[in-house]
Amino acid sequence: MKNNYVSPFSARYASEYMSSLFAAQTRIETWRKLWVELARAEGELGLPITPEQVAALQANVSNIDFDYAAQKEKEFKHDVMAHIHAYGAVAPEAAGIIHLGATSCYVTDNADLIIYRDALLYIRSELLKVIANLTDFAEEYKAMPTLGYTHYQPAQLVTVGKRASLWLQDFVSDLDEIDFALKNVKFLGCRGTTGSQASFKELFNGDMTKINELNTRIADAFGFDDIFDVQGQTYPRKVDSRILNALSSIAQSAHKLATDMRLLQHDRQLFEPFGKTQVGSSAMPYKRNPMMCERVCSLSRYLMADAMNAPMTISVQWMERTLDDSANRRVSLPEGFLCADAVLRLVQKITDGIFVNTPVIEKTVREYLPFIATENLMMEGVKRGASRQDLHEIIRQCSMQAISKMDNGEGCDLLDQLAAHPDFPLTLEEMNSVLDPCDYIGCCPEQVQALVDKTRPLISGIDRENAEINI
To answer: Are residues 115 and 47 located together in one domain of the fold?
Structure first.
């Protein structure tokens, strides 16, 4: 509705899948599925619940009257109780057995765990697409020399692929973080108000076998192999911290890649994809701004900050539970997932179409290669009988003069100066003969290939179709 605030994530940035996963329809349907499985397991384990009642609940999982539920929530000031009544209204024959023995967190927390697990699996698949793009790019350009930078100042040569391999390695480490978070998303089960299962001990007359079987059956129904050993009323909020840390890790890697791309686009060496009809500026028609990379940095910054919510929440969970986590989690977890989804979609598009400006890269290499090659030139001069210290001083003086001219906008004439110096033992032709950039990239190609050989098995068989992104 035009007069209501709509999250930019759902309206502009995130995928339809991720937006629907955190929609109210999905959330309440998941609550109802949990109520169905609770009733089914209780009936099968001997409580007075009939198959017909379970069938009535099953038939109405998607039949949700949100207006009726909103009316009840105004009355009860309790969202779970409102939806219990809304469910009972469409399945009246089962109204009396909905939520039997459970507390609110049975549906709220277990539903969150189900949704977070599914969201993590989706994020994992999107992350693999980025890894696939960077694997291809790094391998293709593993041996292409480019100027390396430390402190954003010219340093020794690396390769275009080697630089991309740094990005690739970061995202592979993020995959480890996602897998760790997934491993620790376990099922809460049906544990009661303080985690003691007192209500179920009463219902099953103290039969612990049936109580444990109840939890196992419900967990199995939702695809969970593990249940937390002990809980309070909620699942351990440490899970949220691990999830947001993993999402923040993706944001950190994405921010690094996007920042490097922005700097390199300024230097006209690499460009993010730019559409034929794309407008870079409303005032400056010539502009070709790195707008996708800028958006990645912007959204990543939000996600890294969002991750601070979870540790602050877990640290103040008093005893068996307190409710100051609820409002925060309703915002920080869904928005964190939607943001991570948006970031990965953008990074997919960027890494799928990086333009390598070969002429500028080669020109930059040629400009700085004489400085990079000075140690080799000095060693060659020593072989010809010159003093290493004398040659060092000659090169230092000529280098400072060449840099001074470059600072004034002139070209690099270091080799011309050295050739003209009466005490330097190499001619211009001899110096040029040792200035092959490929001789100064060290083990970059081998390093890239070693990483690529590790990432290829990770991306084998993945669906690499990228969703359309509104940019």
So the answer is: no
Over residues 219-235, mean pLDDT = 91
Q: Say if 215 falls within a structural domain.
A: no
Q: Can you give the pLDDT at residue 287?
A: 53
Tokens 């994992």 found at: 124
Distance CA 368, CA 356 (A): 19
Query: How do 145-150 and 355-356 pair as beta strands?
Result: unpaired
The reply to whether 190 falls in a domain is yes
Domain that holds residue 429: 374-434
The structure tokens listed for 302 are 């939000």
Average the pLDDT over 256-280 and give the result.
85
Q: At what angle do helices 238-266 and 326-351 cross, to 10 degrees?
A: 30
Q: Provide the CATH number for the domain around residue 61.
A: 1.10.275.10
281 in active site: yes
Mark whether 255 is an active-site residue: no
Whole-number Å distance between alpha carbons of 278 and 200: 62
Q: Which two tokens stand for residue 255?
A: 């921010």
- Determine the straight-line distance between the first and last CA of the chain, rounded to whole angstroms: 22
Q: Taking residues 188-196, what's their average pLDDT? A: 88
Whether residue 325 sits in one domain with residue 192: yes
DSSP 227: B
pTM of the model: 0.89
* Structure-block tokens of residue 460: 């084998």
Set 20, 125, 281, 387: catalytic member: 281
